[in-house]
Amino acid sequence: MTVNIAKASPFLGAHTKAVLVTLRSDGRPQSSNVVYHWNGEAALISVTESRAKTANLRRDPRAALHVSSDDFWQYVVVDGTVQVSSVTTEAGDPVGRELLDVYNAIASNPHPDPDEFYAAMVAEQRLVLRLEPSSFYGTVR
Fold first, then answer.
1. One pLDDT digit (tens) per residue for the chain, 141 residues
2. In whole angstroms, what is the distance from residue 103 CA to residue 100 CA?
3. Which of 37, 71, 88, 91 could cross-link to 95 by cystine, CB 3.0-4.6 Å?
4. CA dihedral 52, 58, 63, 69 (to 10 degrees)
């Protein structure tokens, strides 16, 4: 069932756990459990450079994000394309700052030491996936 953004957005904003589906080189789906932040326009996801989902999205930016309610019976799927940021390479660079924003939006408390966070993101070779929706479907009311 098609869902409009007016119904999907509050649901997506109230959740942070989802399954991201990307496409392998042979066309088969590859799914990953992720945490995300919905900013009202896109889903933002912190990932590492070495993950299969990152390689899949660099090759083919099409993806779906499946978000379930806590009781499992309502859900929204965001279909769209993903922009893959560069990897954060210097503590506090623009990608690192965006990663901190994503972390703080998802976590119950802001990170207590941004400098430590930035260094960890560089060491982990993290980047941001930005899933921009082309459509929504699901059972959310």
1. 889 899 999 999 999 999 999 999 999 999 999 999 999 999 999 999 999 999 999 999 999 999 999 999 999 999 999 999 999 999 999 999 999 999 999 998 999 999 999 999 999 999 999 999 999 999 998
2. 5
3. 88
4. 50
